[in-house]
């Protein structure tokens, strides 16, 4: 918003008249056709009047071109009050002689028609206003007022044709607004007369969330972008958000930034996220998404990088308190202008407004990191397309500026990796948090689903929130299963017990075996003794036998001798 | 806003008989130049007034080419426009007043 360039692009004779409305000059490649009339059509409340008013006011303020505003519907006082909130002071511009305004009221109930007439009265009034301020720009808001007031449509049509020719002849660039018709651009077929440039505004409400769109339907003699662009009205007025990403030509950084959690860094190739990448953290309720976001915010600030934290669920105070309880003192970054919190309820604004606000904050604060927590709050069921489109633009916008984008998203079930698929292709690093329930408790697990351009861990890590911060633990992988939380503790204790038991058993065995050995040895000793004894007995018997035999032979000899036998 | 008219170029201030009642009908005819249509309107108006409001009316003709500022006050868009300033409420009749019936209805002289 600070710099509104005036690209007076000359494209084969068509001179452009910049509107000064953000984005509109981009998609019209320079502005409205100069010296011609542009038709702005759309339903009630789509921002036609604002576009016309801004065209005139910005023409005066930014481009030094005096203007005329003729209102056929709203009283001038209301108009002035309406745009005062956008910082546009119409009465001041009028006092300075740069703006002429008039209100044309045609009350059908007051008017009787008798015979032919023309609209010279209007021409004279308009001419007088143009001359009064030497206007270069004219806005006629909403021309349908004439159709409502004047009964003879044939005369009116002829006169309008004359009016547009007359405006052209005056050399002013004009905007004419008209109500949208059923199945037609305008209710009264005005596109027939104003054929140089037609812009259509749209305001639709889906699932109670309003979105605004703008489309350049036609632009004779000039290139223009034909898509529907999201449009929003915020405190700075109307802005159109072109999707700039079609080229996918972002500057890419090789630099890394810590996730704020050492173990997570090591899961991501040891260094953390890429600067300027987009990170998605998904997970069901209470899995610690915000904590991961806080860890990153802290890390970014620590690295001296500005961080914008957009919260859709918690107030800054609440968030600061909660994060302090897990060891992230984010508060002290705020006065150092490193951290900025923005909280807003999603239901307060339409989607496009969120985007516009984001743009505004980014432009004001120029952060290098933007955290949006959680993006799922942006839309309910049936809004997926819109949310997706909005996120696409958000990511584009942030990437285009080299800003690291960090989103959290709530998954409906622990396993629902499919629910985020719609934007996952835009995400560079996707972390998924899930809970594991066993043994009467839940524990958190973190897994890297993808991370482009880096070697990353495929392990599920246990994710612990402690009062000293966030840490990751390798899960228990013994006994053929992966355990977390206290079941892991239990298993580890059980394992310890088991070992002691085994040792005891072993010791017990040892003792028993020793006893057996000793018993055996004793037996052996006894047997040896018996063997020895047996040997002795055998010898004694042998001796006895020998003695007996000797004695026998002696006795026999003596007997023979005694018998004197020979 | 009503006083502006008298400063204008009062072409006709017809007040035949009964001048005391002249304020009963205060009419202004806005035109943009003396075009044939303007002349027709003027003639038609004079005739209708003479027939129906004899002696009780006053007509001021305002040429917006000469005093364009006056178009704003009476919210003039179409010309010719006949404005019934008095009696209130204000009435407007646009066109060259060639349809007398419509003029009478417009001026509330004849019931709708």
Q: Can you tag this structure with a few keywords?
A:
heterodimer, A: 566 residues, alpha/beta, nine-stranded mixed beta sheet, 38% helix, rod-shaped, disordered N terminus, B: 112 residues, alpha+beta, Glutaredoxin, four-stranded mixed beta sheet, 4 helices, 4 strands, 29% helix, globular
What can you see in these coordinates?
The complex is a heterodimer of chains A (566) and B (112). Chain A has helices at 24-27, 48-63, 76-84, 90-95, 120-133, 144-149, 153-170, 262-267, 289-302, 316-324, 351-365, 384-400, 421-424, 485-563; strands at 16-17, 32-33, 37-42, 67-71, 99-103, 111-113, 137-141, 173-179, 197-206, 209-219, 228-234, 237-240, 256-257, 273-274, 278-283, 307-311, 339-343, 369-373, 404-410, 429-438, 441-451, 461-466, 469-473. Chain A is of the alpha/beta class. Chain A is rod-shaped and about 200 Å long. Chain B has one domain: Glutaredoxin (3-Layer(aba) Sandwich). Helix content of chain B is 29%, strand content 21%. In chain B, strands 2-1-3-4 form a four-stranded mixed sheet, with helices on one face. Mean pLDDT of chain B is 80; it is low at 1-22. The A-B interface holds A 102, 104-106, 110-125, 127-128, 146, 149-150 and B 30, 32-33, 37, 40-41, 44, 64-65, 68-69, 71-72, 75-81, 89-100, 102-103, 105-106.
Topology:
The complex is a heterodimer of chains A (566) and B (112).
Chain A: E1 16-17, H1 24-27, E2 32-33, E3 37-42, H2 48-63, E4 67-71, H3 76-84, H4 90-95, E5 99-103, E6 111-113, H5 120-133, E7 137-141, H6 144-149, H7 153-170, E8 173-179, E9 197-206, E10 209-219, E11 228-234, E12 237-240, E13 256-257, H8 262-267, E14 273-274, E15 278-283, H9 289-302, E16 307-311, H10 316-324, E17 339-343, H11 351-365, E18 369-373, H12 384-400, E19 404-410, H13 421-424, E20 429-438, E21 441-451, E22 461-466, E23 469-473, H14 485-563
Parallel strand pairs in A: 3-8, 3-9, 4-5, 4-7, 7-8, 15-19, 15-20, 16-17, 16-18, 18-19
Antiparallel strand pairs in A: 1-2, 9-10, 10-11, 11-12, 13-14, 20-21, 21-22, 22-23
Chain B: H1 4-7, E1 25-31, H2 36-52, E2 57-63, H3 70-73, E3 81-86, E4 91-94, H4 100-106
Parallel strand pairs in B: 1-2
Antiparallel strand pairs in B: 1-3, 3-4
């Amino acid at each position: 918003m600070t710099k509104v360039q005036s690209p007076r692009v000359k494209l084969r004779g068509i001179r452009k008249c910049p509107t000064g409305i953000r984005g509109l000059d981009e998609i019209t490649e320079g502005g409205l056709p100069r010296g011609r009339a542009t038709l702005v059509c759309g339903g009630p409340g789509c921002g036609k009047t604002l576009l016309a008013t801004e065209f005139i006011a910005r023409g005066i303020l930014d481009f030094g071109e005096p203007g005329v505003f003729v209102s056929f519907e709203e009283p001038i006082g209301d108009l002035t009050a309406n745009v005062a909130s956008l910082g546009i002071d119409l009465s001041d511009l009028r006092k300075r002689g740069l703006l002429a305004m008039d209100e044309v009221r045609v009350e059908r109930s007051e008017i009787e028609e008798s015979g032919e007439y023309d609209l010279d009265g209007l021409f004279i009034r308009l001419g007088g206003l143009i001359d009064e301020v030497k206007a270069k720009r004219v806005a006629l808001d909403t021309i349908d007022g004439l159709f409502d007031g004047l009964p003879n449509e044939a005369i009116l049509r002829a006169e309008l044709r004359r009016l547009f020719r007359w405006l052209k002849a005056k050399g002013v660039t004009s905007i004419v607004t008209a109500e949208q018709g059923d199945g037609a651009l305008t209710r009264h077929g005005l596109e027939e007369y104003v054929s140089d440039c037609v812009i259509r505004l749209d305001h639709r409400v889906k699932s109670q969330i309003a979105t605004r769109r703008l489309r350049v339907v036609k632009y004779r003699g000039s290139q223009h972008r034909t898509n529907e662009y999201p449009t929003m009205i915020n405190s700075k007025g109307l802005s159109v958000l072109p999707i700039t990403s079609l080229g996918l030509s972002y500057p890419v950084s090789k630099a890394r930034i810590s996730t704020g959690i050492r173990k997570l860094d090591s899961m991501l190739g040891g260094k953390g996220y890429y600067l300027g990448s987009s990170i998605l953290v998904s997970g069901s309720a209470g899995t610690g998404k915000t904590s991961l976001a806080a860890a990153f915010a802290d890390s970014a600030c620590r690295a001296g990088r500005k961080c914008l934290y957009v919260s859709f669920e918690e107030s800054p105070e609440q968030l600061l308190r909660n994060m302090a309880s897990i060891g992230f003192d984010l508060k002290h970054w705020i006065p150092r202008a490193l951290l900025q919190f923005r909280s807003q309820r999603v239901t307060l604004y339409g989607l496009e407004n969120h985007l516009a606000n984001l743009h505004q904050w980014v432009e004001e604060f120029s952060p290098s990191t933007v955290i949006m927590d959680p993006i799922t709050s942006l839309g309910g069921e049936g809004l997926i397309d819109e949310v997706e489109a909005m996120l696409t633009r958000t990511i584009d916008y942030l990437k285009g500026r080299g800003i690291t984008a960090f989103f959290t998203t709530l998954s409906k079930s622990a396993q629902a990796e499919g629910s985020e698929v719609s934007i996952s292709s835009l995400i560079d690093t996707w972390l998924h948090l899930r809970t594991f329930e066993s043994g009467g408790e839940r524990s958190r697990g973190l897994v890297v689903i993808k991370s482009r351009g880096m070697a990353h861990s495929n392990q599920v890590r246990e994710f612990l929130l402690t009062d000293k911060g966030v840490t990751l633990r390798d899960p228990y992988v013994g006994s053929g299963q992966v355990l977390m939380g206290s079941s892991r503790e239990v298993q580890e204790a059980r394992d310890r017990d088991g070992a002691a038991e085994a040792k005891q058993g072993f010791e017990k065995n040892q003792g028993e075996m020793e006893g057996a050995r000793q018993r055996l040895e004793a037996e052996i000793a006894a047997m040896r003794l018996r063997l020895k004894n047996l040997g002795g007995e055998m010898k004694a018997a042998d001796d006895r036998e020998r003695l007996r035999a000797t004695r026998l032979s002696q006795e026999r000899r003596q007997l023979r001798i005694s018998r004197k036998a020979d | 806003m009503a006083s502006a008219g008298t400063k204008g170029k009062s072409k006709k201030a017809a007040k035949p008989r009964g001048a005391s009642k002249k304020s009963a009908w205060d009419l202004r005819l806005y035109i943009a130049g003396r075009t044939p249509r303007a002349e027709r309107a003027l003639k038609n108006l004079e005739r209708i007034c003479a027939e129906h409001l004899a002696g009780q009316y006053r007509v001021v003709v305002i040429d917006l080419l000469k005093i364009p500022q006056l178009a704003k006050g009476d919210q003039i868009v179409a010309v010719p426009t006949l404005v019934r300033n008095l009696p209130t409420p204000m009435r407007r009749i646009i066109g060259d007043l060639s349809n007398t019936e419509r003029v009478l209805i417009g001026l509330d002289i004849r019931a709708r």
